[in-house]
Hints:
Blueprint: H1 2-8, E1 18-19, H2 20-27, E2 30-32, E3 38-39, E4 41-43, E5 52-56, H3 62-65, E6 72-76, H4 77-83, E7 91-94, H5 97-108, E8 123-125, E9 130-131, E10 136-137, E11 141-143, E12 148-149, E13 154-155, E14 159-161, E15 166-167, E16 172-173, E17 176-178, E18 183-184, E19 189-192, E20 197-199, E21 204-206, E22 212-215, E23 220-221, E24 226-228, E25 234-237, E26 242-243, E27 248-249, E28 254-255, E29 260-261, E30 266-267, E31 272-273, E32 278-279, E33 284-285, E34 290-291, E35 296-297, E36 302-303, E37 312-314, E38 319-320, H6 321-336
Parallel strand pairs: 4-5, 5-6, 6-7, 8-11, 9-12, 10-13, 11-14, 12-15, 13-16, 14-17, 15-18, 16-19, 17-22, 18-23, 19-24, 22-25, 23-26, 24-27, 25-28, 26-29, 27-30, 28-31, 29-32, 30-33, 31-34, 32-35, 33-36, 35-37
Antiparallel strand pairs: 1-3, 2-7, 20-21, 37-38
Helix pairs in contact: 2-5
Amino acid sequence: xxxxxxxxxxxxxxxxxxxxDFLANIAKADIHGNNNLTIKGVNTLDLASSSEIALVDNIxxxxxxxxxxxxxxxxxxxxxxxxxxxxxxxxxxSENAYLSYAYILNAFYPDIKKIDLNNFTNISISKSSKxxxxxxxxxxxxxxxxxxxxxxxxxxxxxxxxxDCYIGNNVNIANTFxxxxxxxxxxxxxxxxxxxxAYDGKMYIKVPQVGIVKIGNNVEVGxxxxxxxxxxxxxxxxxxxxxDNLVHIAHNVIINENTMIAGQTGVAGSTIIGxxxxxxxxxxxxxxxxxxxxxxxxxxxxxxxxxKKETKISGTPAxxxxxxxxxxxxxxxxxxxx
Length: 338
């Protein structure tokens, strides 16, 4: 409960609430259900409250709809046709659900980058911590005991750093909760916007990124890594995770305990990686995947499908390691055959 309260202090809150008919108008969507609802925010299907609206734009997550507590749902016509028997639910039905979601988020979070831009208030730094005079500490920042912040690093807004942490030079951290005994090496950027855009037929509209990064205890982040904030809630790096240099973690990714990821690897949005996973260098992992516990992924693999626990994979597209080795032998025989 204490941890939840600390995290809530760094989450950006919506600036207003709106009637559903107003949101339908700006979202260019049709209301099916009660148009007099008051909506106080946007959230994910599994976390939405009875006063929030949620997006359902991927068949993969349709099961979460049936247990969601959201007041209303943004859906495409295709998904609405699958759910329209749910007469007690309220829907905003759109030609482009993700674009409607972008319009609605922009209503709740207008000019989000301007919030606290020049605000240096609400800062708490433990007397036992050492912060370089050349570091920049912005608004709503807590720095715990025995933590070191080096030169030219920018911390905040909306950051909580625990005890016994080390932050290198030229590190940029915003919208992030960090546990204790965490090392972040030079040049890494944590908590900036994820890659979220919706196409309106002429140009790409920015989808506000309003979540945070949550980093556990005993984590190490190498130099020049990038970890994007969650689109609505968390991007999470759990206890004991180790990231090599030049690793990119996209929004909404969850990396579970004691996983190690080698350099130049990229993990696309909303993928969940299990515990004790070993990822080689220059691996690409597609979005919205589930990687099981104790998986081993060979260097330069391209992972495009869910991977079951305790599996070894390699190649592009990635396959089981024994299959990859057989393919390599057969290919070698083919190209060397006279």
